[in-house]
What we know:
There is one protein chain. Helix content is 84%, strand content 0%. With 336 residues, the chain is mainly α. The chain has two domains: 229 residues, no CATH class; 89 residues. It is globular, with a radius of gyration of 22 Å.
Amino acid sequence: MVSASLTSLAVTLAVTLGYLVIVRLVDVNEREPAWSLALVFSLGGAAATVLSVTVSPVVLTLDVWSSAALRESALWLSLGAAFWIFAEIAQLRGWSEVTDVVDGLVYGVAGGLGFSGGDAIASLAPASSLTLVAEDAWSVAWRTALAGLAQGVYGAVLGAGFGLAVTRSTRARWLWPIAGLVVAVALQGAHDGLAYGNALGGESAMWRSHVALGLPLLALSALGAFGLSAERRAIAAELSHGRRDGDVTSDELSLLAHVWRRQRRYVGLLVTGQVARLRATAGLHNRQVMLAVALRRLSRATHDVDRQRATHEVDALRRAIRSMRAHGGAAAESTR
Length: 336
């Protein structure tokens, strides 16, 4: 029984962390730092653990809509805490890790995966271990993969709300995270109702639940693709003037504009063992993409407060880029 629980724990962590690695690689323009993803992931797991301890399992398993509201509210609060921490760090160094809706999606998925992993680990209590004894590793992996995908979608919706709040210059910007919470609760309630509702139970209900999950997944994928495309347009438009200001060289701009060339450069540095050079080069490119997005946000700001905030962020990123050139030597590598 103990061995089965340990196997389930290992498989759950492996599947969840595998998802997290994939999510980090998706944002090809500006990958989020490992520490920030780990923070959001941990907070999501902590939220699931606290929820499992404080709320009756009957409510979390039998009442579909109460469960959806409680789970998504707990994840929403953990994401809010993470974005608040990012905002506090931004006050210290001058820029934030969350610059657009793509960042919101990535962090939302990371939080959702953490929540799914924490929820699965909490279910490994002695009361449920009898069930886990009968499951092999593949069954646990499949169940965890489905649960992680579902909670990742809900988390992405929540994260998109926070990401949209960052990109909006109106005073009502924080209505977006609330809207994200409402949509996430509706999605989880509808999905669980189709999958586990008494009137709609059975294999056909599971297929309907997969469709109910697949449609928002496609919508979120389209939103992410649109966000990545918007980042590339910002790179081309905003950094084209940065060559004379020293923000970017011609070769760097070419790499930033062609994602797969940049990825090949990273792989080349990795396979030749130049890990420090890889980190410096990727870090410089990330700051340049963040600068492009900040410049785009500055050009579109309509309120004085938003314009001042964007100007402060642009200046801080430019100082960071010059400092990285002076100390990291990444610019020399990018011209080879």
